[in-house]
Amino acid sequence: MNFAELKEIIKQLKKIVPCSQCNKKFIEDGIRVLTTIQNEGLFHMSCFNCNNQVIVHVTISEQEGDEIEQHRVESGGMI
Fold first, then answer.
1. What separation in angstroms does the CA of 23 have from each of 16, 34, 76?
2. pLDDT tens digits, residue range 3-50?
3. Which of 16, 38, 53, 65 sits most deeply, having the most CB atoms within 10 A of its CB?
4. How far apart are the first and last CA of the chain?
């Protein structure tokens, strides 16, 4: 993944992934890139409203349209 792709992924995460505890949107300062390899990335998202933490795995694939499939691994406590 290049820098432009990472920026777009973070933009999309902010837009489509609400906090599962308080339903607020995540802010950019609460999203960290943990690792990337080829077309996959692992992101840590921390809610500044309720301190919920989420790990999100993203895979970029060549598809028509803007459909994004969400798969999340969530943690109610510290990671």
1. 11, 23, 14
2. 988 999 999 999 999 999 999 999 999 999 999 999 899 999 999 999
3. 53
4. 25
Task: Report the pLDDT averaged over residues 63-71.
Answer: 52
Residues in the chain: 79
Written as one string, the DSSP assignment of 57-76 is EEE----SSS-----EEEES
pTM above 0.85, yes or no: no
How does strand 72-75 pair with strand 40-46? Answer: unpaired
Nearest-angstrom CA–CA distance, 53 and 34: 13
Predicted local distance difference test score (pLDDT) of residue 2: 87
C-alpha 27/C-alpha 69 separation (Å) is: 20
* Contact criterion met (CB below 8 Å) for 34 and 17: no
Say if residues 53 and 47 touch (Cβ distance below 8 Å). Answer: yes
